[in-house]
Amino acid sequence: MTFELSLLAVPKSVPELRHHLRHHSFDVRLCVSELVTNVIDHVGEGTPVTVRVLPTDTGGTRVEVTDPDPRALPVLLHAATTDESGRGLALLGACARRWGVEAGADRKTVWFELTAPNQESVT
């Protein structure tokens, strides 16, 4: 089942998005929440975002979060235990089979893929 939603990246959008995705796995909801929060924090509150959830050929799930700033690329940080932020992409990397960024001239899409339930993770 394919799902697409356009929204403004504001804090109240995150729980609303999770509600729209309530029929998807916890990992889908967790990781997409991290990506939308990254848009709020690093691109700016109120940024228009499109979220797409698609099935993969192997029965897994692919999620894409697109925003209009191709320059603000995600960076995997190594947060210290006392840091208050910097763990979102590490969390994404731990949950997702794979993830990446597709940059265009006027937008970027950060995506991740999760394996189907009962499939072994490929790293």
From TrEMBL:
<keyword id="KW-0547">Nucleotide-binding</keyword>
<keyword id="KW-0723">Serine/threonine-protein kinase</keyword>
<protein>
    <submittedName>
        <fullName>ATP-binding protein</fullName>
    </submittedName>
</protein>
<keyword id="KW-0418">Kinase</keyword>
<dbReference type="InterPro" id="IPR036890">
    <property type="entry name" value="HATPase_C_sf"/>
</dbReference>
<keyword id="KW-0067">ATP-binding</keyword>
<dbReference type="InterPro" id="IPR050267">
    <property type="entry name" value="Anti-sigma-factor_SerPK"/>
</dbReference>
<dbReference type="Pfam" id="PF13581">
    <property type="entry name" value="HATPase_c_2"/>
</dbReference>
<feature type="domain" description="Histidine kinase/HSP90-like ATPase">
    <location>
        <begin position="26"/>
        <end position="112"/>
    </location>
</feature>
<dbReference type="GO" id="GO:0005524">
    <property type="term" value="F:ATP binding"/>
</dbReference>
<keyword id="KW-0808">Transferase</keyword>
<dbReference type="InterPro" id="IPR003594">
    <property type="entry name" value="HATPase_dom"/>
</dbReference>
